[in-house]
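User: Sequence in, structure out. Go.
Assistant: Echoing your sequence, followed by the structure tokens.
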Amino acid sequence: MPTRKFKPTTPSRRNMTVPTFDEVTRTSPEKKLVVIKKKHAGRNSYGRITVRHQGGGNKIKYRIIDFKRQQSGACTVIGVEYDPNRSAYIALVENEAGNRSYIIAPVGLKDGDKVYAGPDADIKPGNTLPIGNIPVGTMLHNIELYPGKGAQLARSAGVFAQLIAKENGVAQVRLPSGEVRIIRLDCLASIGQVGNVEHDTVKLGKAGKTRHLGIRPTVRGSVMNPVDHPHGGGEGKSPVGHPGPVTPWGKPALGYKTRDTKARTNKFIVKRRNAK
């Protein structure tokens, strides 16, 4: 997916790039596969802000994605669509009975292609099968953590995981972060790399684009008063006044590990993403 640049007619246009959407072949979503997405603006059930800097944004509807690949057998790709809820593109597929569903579109998937879900599927982009039936070294996406729960790993634009070993009834998979994790062989995974590979090269260019995404402005703590933030106060520009940056509530914000050291799933991690 190449990006399109603009002539610098304004300061914001100078650095702005947008996707060309060359891979997108269908412009309107399937009506039966969308639901209304309610806005919460970062507020909990009491109406209090629990996640800052959220609110506004364009009105969007949620596309129901078949992460479990419940339609087994052959499905035909009808079209590739843009999804405002995720960075990856989605593909509308239809099985022989005429039932339609959405899947994450991998690189190279085109209209008219056949995709299969089942233990006998070929090793071809878009096909889904148990990890135990996939050769070592294959690129994967849409990986289940628990059989039947649906894909949870490697779903963003341009990412892929790699199957690096199978032994003792489990597989070792290298995730996009670099973490190596143990996953059961009966968990499903899709073949290939997620499409829209150049998503991370897009430059929004102006503040308004960020507001369209539902992100509100972020004020630096160092320009606040001491009552509002631990970094605040001082005459002129001042250092943070702590051994390292902290959140507005005083918790370390740089290099502070938040994962529970007694987490039940620690035993499934062979190598951490930041291990040297």
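User: And one key feature?
Assistant: The chain has two helices and 17 strands.
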